[in-house]
User: Which sequence fits this backbone?
């Protein structure tokens, strides 16, 4: 067979965007790929057929992008993340291809509605919250700004979990998004790699030779790649999201099966498949911790083997790796990659340790997403050494190199040495993955200006002294394609009609809207768009939950992962206090308000799950009390995901960004809400600080302690009990919650939650309550002045362009990756 002639064949001609041709191809896919006659096809059949037709047009751009990268020898960026919260892809792909009208017309000619079938696409269960959604936004922006990139993660069969409510309690059920296949992905059987665990390390070589280390794993699994194309705006580039699934070397032990041990025969298969089954297995048990570490090493090792294979195939020189490759670690989850790359360079490719260390540091960069010391992953040394014995040796070798340099060249004290060590020595000895990621990278970036400054003073203070030029800031961003143009088409149409199309290619062109903020006619159009979006959300709430909410009320929305530092509890307590006030003072002109919550709590996070139960218990009482007269409603919508956010964000009047100051790294929900014309009520935390600078403090509602004040209170003699007893609203609300007013079936249910506020209140709920309650009444007053309200919300939309992920990616490319 003459294979050279294959390479010389010209690529196929790009496919047409003509609606008649699209309609014909949809019928062909329906008939020959799905095996259905159009007369009996179901909506999900039309969805799959449409995706396959769109996918063909993406492939044209995908292959063109791949050829361009290879021919120009462009530097590739590899983004390693345990999460990619990509959401539904059909509308995103159609919009970025510029095919929206054509595909709508094609389907219409076949008697099919695009909106109806697009809503059937499952959300990919590949993430949980902001970190995973940021990764998805960044992948889309890298394609948009023409950065050749791969995203690497795990192809979770069930993802995090599907959240349902049982009498107000969170129940975790498997998310079955892959039950009927995924038409967007391509299996790459040729991209399969062995990944090992456990075993032993042998040292080879004579007394006059440099030692060679051979890791002999006790267990091995096969990582196989599945590729999903990621389309940039106007299909400028199509990049690749490569996700790994795990398979056993031997899928079944046939001898054991034939001997009657049917369960034992599948033990290795089940163990391998567990690696790609669930995102964030509960790590409260040793088994859960081990599975989590296995997952992180599994996808890190497979990704690095794939990166080196691709690099060697094109350049055949590993010393060029930092010039041709940049690897970004999205938090500490892939931090074991530092040790794995050194292992591959030394043990597999024969480089010496110092050369491998130099290549590694110049190749990797690390994004930190948390100031919580407990969230900077660490692993017990015995677990790490048992599971990854060669990597434990490498970690010790890196540590020795760093500590000797710190002692001899920098003169660090014993205390300073302990703080920068990769091994935590106080109490149980643990491997500090944050420190490993820091020392093994040439760049460590925060994700907002405040977060970056606090990183230098807190979690990485001592490493910052040792490497003062390594920490830098890259404030997060969101893609305006999904978070404005796709999720809010009515507002997008109004913007295009008012200021033209420039903002569609450059989000900062939204600034042209500023001059319309006080225009009564434009305010009227803007308010009508908001109301239409609120009606859509109200219909969803009625359909899913049987609760009627009034679109004329303030839609006050807090949607994010449930965590004590994000302070959903503060919001709920304020709802209870407002409930008391409405009943006690019916003569006042109360502003109707709907408080909407959504978010998932980690399965083992007791207090977070208790907060969800409290929200539902409070909702049940308030929503059914005729004395409230419909002036206040509380709704917790289950199973928060990207698709739900795309409905809730455009409908928000008020955006709750009320985390304890100094604890939210950045936030991206705050940006999505403001871009869609919501007023932010928030603390000066994370990117709220920069939003205030861009939007204007007069166009936000800022309250509460600053990060410095929080730190001072924690270090001093903060007395939450005195604060609670000094606030009649707060003390009454807490008394009602603790005494069982909202939990008559179990009057002690929330006693521990309330007692935590009285005894220590680490998250400053009591300290900020009065300021928060006052800020909410300021919101009420502003709401009554419609012109003033819309003047502020329009300016939020106009001034949020800087928070585009395109801007963020350009900064990463210029300052960290040296790419593009």
Assistant:
């Amino acid at each position: 067979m003459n294979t050279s002639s294959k390479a010389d064949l010209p690529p196929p001609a790009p496919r047409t965007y003509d609606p008649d041709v699209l309609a014909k191809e949809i019928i062909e896919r329906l008939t020959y790929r799905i095996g259905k006659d159009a007369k009996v096809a179901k909506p999900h059949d039309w969805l799959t057929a449409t995706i396959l037709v769109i996918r063909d047009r993406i492939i044209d751009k995908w292959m063109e992008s791949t050829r361009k990268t290879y021919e120009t020898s462009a530097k590739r960026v590899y983004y390693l993340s345990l999460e990619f919260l990509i959401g539904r892809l059909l509308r995103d792909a159609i919009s970025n291809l510029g095919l929206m009208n054509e595909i709508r017309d094609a389907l219409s000619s076949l008697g099919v509605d695009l909106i109806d079938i697009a809503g059937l696409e499952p959300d990919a269960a590949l993430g949980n919250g902001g970190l995973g959604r940021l990764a998805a936004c960044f992948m889309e922006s890298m394609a948009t700004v023409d950065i050749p990139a791969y995203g690497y993660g795990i192809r979770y069969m069930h993802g995090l979990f599907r959240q349902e409510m049982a009498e107000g309690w969170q129940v975790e059920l498997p998310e079955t998004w892959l039950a009927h296949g995924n038409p967007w992905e391509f299996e790459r059987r040729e991209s399969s790699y062995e990944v090992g665990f456990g075993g032993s390390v042998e040292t080879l070589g004579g007394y006059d030779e440099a030692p060679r280390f051979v890791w002999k794993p006790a267990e091995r699994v096969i990582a196989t790649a599945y590729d999903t194309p990621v389309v940039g705006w106007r299909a400028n580039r199509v990049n690749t999201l490569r996700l790994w699934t795990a398979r056993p070397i031997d899928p079944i032990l046939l001898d054991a099966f034939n001997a009657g041990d049917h369960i034992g025969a599948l033990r290795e298969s089940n163990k391998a498949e567990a690696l790609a089954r669930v995102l964030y297995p509960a790590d409260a048990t040793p088994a859960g911790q081990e599975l989590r570490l296995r997952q992180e090493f599994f996808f890190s090792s497979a990704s690095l083997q794939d990166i080196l294979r691709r690099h060697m195939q094109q350049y055949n020189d590993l010393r060029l790796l930092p010039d041709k490759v940049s690897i970004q670690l999205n938090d500490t989850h892939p931090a074991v990659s530092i040790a794995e790359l050194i292992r591959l360079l030394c043990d597999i490719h024969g480089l010496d340790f110092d050369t491998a260390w130099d290549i590694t540091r110049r190749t990797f960069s690390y994004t930190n997403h948390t100031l919580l010391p407990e969230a900077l992953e660490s692993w017990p040394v015995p677990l790490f050494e048992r599971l990854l014995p060669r990597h434990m040796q490498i970690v010790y070798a890196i540590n020795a190199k760093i500590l000797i340099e710190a002692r001899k060249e920098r003169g660090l004290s014993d205390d300073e040495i302990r703080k920068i060590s990769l091994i935590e020595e106080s109490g149980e000895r643990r491997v500090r993955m944050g420190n490993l990621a820091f020392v093994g990278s040439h760049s460590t970036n925060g994700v907002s200006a405040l977060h970056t400054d606090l990183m230098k003073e807190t979690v990485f203070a001592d490493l910052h002294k040792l490497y003062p030029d390594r920490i830098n800031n890259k404030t997060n961003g969101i893609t305006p394609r999904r978070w404005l143009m796709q999720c809010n088409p009515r507002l997008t149409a109004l913007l295009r009609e008012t200021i033209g199309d420039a903002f569609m290619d450059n989000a900062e062109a939204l600034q042209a809207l500023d001059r319309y903020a006080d225009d009564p006619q434009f305010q009227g159009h803007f308010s009508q768009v908001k109301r239409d979006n609120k009606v859509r959300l109200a219909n969803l709430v009625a359909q899913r939950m049987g609760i009627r909410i009034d679109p004329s009320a303030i839609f006050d929305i807090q949607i994010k992962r449930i965590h004590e530092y994000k302070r959903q509890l503060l919001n709920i307590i304020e709802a209870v206090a407002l409930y008391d006030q409405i009943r006690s003072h019916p003569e006042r002109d109360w502003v109707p308000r709907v408080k909407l919550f959504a978010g998932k709590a980690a399965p083992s996070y007791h207090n977070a799950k208790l907060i969800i139960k409290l929200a539902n218990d409070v909702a049940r009482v308030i929503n059914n009390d005729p004395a409230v007269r419909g002036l206040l409603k509380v709704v917790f919508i289950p199973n928060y995901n990207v698709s739900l956010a795309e409905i809730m964000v455009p409908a928000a009047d008020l955006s709750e960004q009320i985390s304890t100051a100094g604890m939210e790294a950045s936030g991206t929900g705050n940006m999505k809400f403001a871009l869609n014309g919501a007023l932010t009520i928030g603390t000066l935390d994370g990117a709220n600080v920069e939003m205030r600078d861009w939007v204007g403090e007069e166009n936000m509602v800022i309250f509460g302690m600053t990060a410095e004040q929080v730190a001072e209170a924690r270090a001093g003699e903060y007395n939450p009990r005195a604060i609670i007893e000094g606030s009649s609203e707060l003390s009454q609300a807490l008394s009602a919650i603790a005494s069982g007013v909202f939990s008559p079936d179990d009057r002690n249910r929330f006693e521990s939650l309330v007692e935590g506020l009285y005894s220590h209140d680490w998250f400053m709920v009591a300290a900020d309550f009065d300021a928060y309650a006052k800020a909410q009444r300021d919101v009420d007053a502003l709401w009554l002045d419609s012109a003033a309200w819309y003047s502020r919300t329009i300016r939020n939309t106009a001034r949020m362009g800087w928070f585009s992920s395109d801007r963020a990616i350009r900064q990463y490319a210029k300052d960290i990756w040296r790419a593009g």
Remarks:
- The first strand starts at residue 76 and ends at 80.
- The mean pLDDT is 95.
- The chain has two domains: 73-88+123-475+810-817, 480-803.
